[in-house]
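User: If only I could read backbone structure tokens as easily as an amino acid sequence. Those tokens are not coordinates but codes from a learned vocabulary of shapes. Could you go through the record with me and say what the backbone is doing? Here is the record:
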Amino acid sequence: MSASNRQSQSRQPAPPGPDPVQTLLMVLVVTLVLGATGYLCLAHPSLTAPIAAVSGVGAALAAVFGIVARR
């Protein structure tokens, strides 16, 4: 076996990192959603309780999705 053959076999590909465009879009969407939610809670106080209920369920679903996605 030649030296270049052994060297290419011992190298392992680097694990893929997060896509910068996807990360940027995720940050943008989260910021916009939180900003819109904050505006709705301030401008329409009667919507605060339903928004809190939906965000609580959303947080639980996001946690479950995060746990399942790591497997």
Q: What stands out?
A: The helical segments are 3-10, 20-43, 48-69.
